[in-house]
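Question: Now follow the chain.
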Amino acid sequence: MNETWTWIWAGMAGAVLGAMFFGGLWWTVRKTVSSQQPALWFFGSFLLRMSLTLAGFYWVAGGQWERLLACLVGFILARLIVMRLTPTVQKPTDWASEAHHAPES
């Protein structure tokens, strides 16, 4: 029973890590639109987000692959939740319906 709670805790920690990672990515993209140096924002954000995420995974796993897997599942679930909650700028174009505009060869 104690092991089950450990996996649940690891999954919840993974969800928090995922929310920070993908929420930070969303914030970075919004911030760089009006920035004078977008490459610096992306690079700095990437380093910070990856450092925190990898350190969190390492700490949560504690040398046990089961906890690492539970953390990864929580991380992926957080990605799905963040994708659903954050507004998209525009929907992807349906390339098949736009094909008739292409010049003929």
